[in-house]
């Protein structure tokens, strides 16, 4: 993997990706942030050596480098998922590339379902902790110790200082921000009523199909991490209705401006 990381990094450096400070992963339906960036360079995933290719129709599949809120950033416009047939090592490979390019902080967004019935769709949840229900770990491969500590500590996976700043920004900008636990499942099917009840019992406030693998690898690489979920639907097992994916994407787009404000104002302080 070291060879692959070097090849991908050198390709991007030649394209003009020069020492970004912050990495950002944009989740499903969350692409508006790109319009806020002064773009300096970009690369399609299918042109980057060793990179997976996004297969979900609402994920663009580009790595973008530029200036946001006065800082150099590298942004994943579209991410990878286990449900697309990728391994957890594939899903998290871009995080290793961003770290090699120079980032010290990783900001992650996702679209998620609200398990906590006190949370409503269109609102945002700051992830304080997570539950990995994807069945494996992105660190479970031979040679991982060459890239970082095999037994990575996960007692504080999300940086307390950054989370405190995000909470203060939300208050200052009158943004309703919940804080809670995110459960990551494989998907791509959505959950049954019984699964929603189980998730509630084990302490999840929101559920999605991403984020946790990337956060594990970011911690493996000693990056500071923060993540937010844009809540796109309410997962009430006693009143469950069929989910409309188009409606989920539309709800993500509606809530996204608040997420952009949180990220932009945060980056100014880093």
From TrEMBL:
The keyword Transferase applies. It comes from the Bacteria. Its EC number is 2.4.2.1. It is an enzyme of class 2 (transferase). InterPro entries: Nucleoside_phosphorylase_d, Nucleoside_phosphorylase_sf, Purine_phosphorylase. Keywords: Glycosyltransferase, Transferase. Residues 22-268 form the Nucleoside phosphorylase domain. Pathway: Purine metabolism; purine nucleoside salvage. The keyword Iron does not apply. Coiled coil: none annotated. The purine nucleoside phosphorylases catalyze the phosphorolytic breakdown of the N-glycosidic bond in the beta-(deoxy)ribonucleoside molecules, with the formation of the corresponding free purine bases and pentose-1-phosphate. Belongs to the PNP/MTAP phosphorylase family. This is Purine nucleoside phosphorylase.
